[in-house]
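Feature request, filed as a ticket because there's no other form

It would be nice if the structure record came with a short human-readable summary line next to the tokens. Right now we just get the raw output. Example of a typical job, pasted below so the devs can see what we mean:
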Amino acid sequence: MIQRIDTDFCELSIYAKYAILKVFENVFYDIEKATIVHQKFQEFFQNKPFVLITERNFKHEVDFSVYKGNALQNIEGLAIVSANPEERERAVLEQPLFNKSFAFFEQLTDAQNWAEAFFR
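Raw output as currently delivered:
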């Protein structure tokens, strides 16, 4: 890990080719929060391509409008990680909203391996 950033609503772990986003329990992840996260990504990755991994161990809601406009064009892939079947169902709804590579994993290490292999 290169950098870890904690906010009042999430934890970001930044790696060379990907980032892991963990939204805290009972948070409503909306455009305002997504903008803060995107600013952090922009500071680190600038225009370099990267993969975003969302580790969903905590129950929280996502405003699907965060996908509109694809604010960061350099996010090349999105992986959702959760062992919760409800998260898989929500991922099925989110997938059409993201127009690049999209994957669902039950284990974080699988998503990290996917992200690492993405740029080989």
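Something like this underneath would help us a lot:
The radius of gyration is 13 Å.
Residues 3-118 form a domain with the Transcription Regulator spoIIAA fold (CATH 3.30.750.24).
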